[in-house]
Amino acid sequence: MSEIVLIVHFITVLFFIAGFFVGLVWNQSMFRYIHAGCLGGITLLMMLKIPCPLTLLEESLRNQSYEGSFLATWLNRILYLEWFDPSHVLIANVLFMTLVLSSFWWHRIKS
Asked: How far apart are CA 54 and CA 8, in angstroms?
């Protein structure tokens, strides 16, 4: 079950990153608003130092001892970069959120 949560978590992170570019190309208002809202929510959680709910669920399912498949092992390594400082992740997230929000001005939504 923890592997399923890990895959959902990975897809969510891909949505946050790739969603910006998809939103620029597709330029559909509902998609862009949902993307910005979700990204804003996770940015707020990070600023308030509240752990990601998917991370908490995954950790509780695997009880801190990870023994999973090859795919799950690599997804885990990609998502949870041990060498990356959490404050750097927050700064990158805030900068990315600023880019997403500013895109509403420099790349207007089609009417």
From this structure: 8
User: Which residues have a Cβ under 8 Å from the Cβ of 11 and sit 6 or more positions away?
Assistant: none
The rounded distance, in Å, linking the Cα atoms of 82 and 95 is: 21
**Please, what is the average pLDDT of the chain?**
88
Q: How far is CA 108 from the centre of its chain?
A: 24
- Of residues 62 and 70, more confidently modeled: 62
Kind plus residue range of the DSSP H or E element containing 23: helix 2-26
| CA atoms of 77 and 94, how far apart (whole Å) | 23
- What's the pTM value of the predicted model, to 2 decimals? 0.82
Instruction: Name which residue leads in pLDDT, 73 or 89.
Output: 89
Q: Which residues contact 81 (CB under 8 A, 6 or more apart)?
A: none
Q: What is the pLDDT of residue 35?
A: 98
Give the C-alpha separation, 30 to 42, whole Å: 18
DSSP letter (8 states) at residue 49: T
Place of tokens 């990975």: 10
Q: Which tokens in the block code for residue 62?
A: 């695997």
